[in-house]
Give the backbone structure.
Amino acid sequence: MYLENRLIAMLDVLGFSSHIQDPESLKRTTAQYAELIAEAKGHMFNPEGVPGSPNPPPSNFEYGQFVFDTLVLVSNPLDVHTVAHFMLTTGLLMERFFEAGFPLRGAIGKGDFCMDDTTQIFLSDAFKRLKPEEDNQQWTGCTLLPEIEALAVETLLGSIPASGLAVSAPIHRVPVPFKKSTTPPTESWCVNWSHLLAPTTLSQGLAYLKGDTEKHQGTVEYLERMHTMPNDTLRLAPEFAPAVAMKLIKTRASARIKFEDAADNGVEPGCDNWTLAFGYPHPQQASIDEKSRFNN
């Protein structure tokens, strides 16, 4: 397999060794980690289509592999749709792993990718740039290397509003806590992984980082910054009950959608009034991207 000019992500689980201190924790961690990997490969790598649709949605990645505590993701050929799917699903993976107590830290770059089918060895020219970037971060987050910033902004956002990006943007430019710190802190474009998580879930996930003061503090500061951004969460009419709000992470090509109840839990809305929620009258007029990436 030889893939040219693809987005490539490298993400590591923070504090993975702390999960496997004795035989019992090794067995427990193996079971939990295996369940997460199965969920990722079965749903996030290959999303389910809209019921009744004759065409299944495309895969979100051309290649994805877990190696010990590291996840490598390779995009499909680059266009506005594949970049959106890659970024949104990377954020979804980070959400799910954070919720399960396996917070991820990583970086996304661009390069060629080659895998030998016999040995399953895979290499990329991007790895030499991704690994130092990932290792240097003191938080749960995923930065974009400078080599893909212009591509990401153009394909995901189109342009940056003068008033700044809302919290629903798929990427944000924020200060990144690096081990080799600078003054002022270095700012990078980063994947939006936290917006759709409930406050209780964020608090529980942060608890897993308390053993590493710097990474815990770096993540707390990032979440506090996210809370200062313009919040474009949509409050819903009563007929949507038990859902009272709809959150989005949206790009030019697709979106992830979450309906929440009053306790910030993901729920199914009580009606299909798509005109109120999306601006068009019938579900079949919604893009497959929007509906197939509905996320409770």
Remarks:
- Helices lie at 23-44, 80-99, 127-135, 146-157, 199-207, 213-227, 274-278, 288-292.
- The longest helix spans residues 23-44.
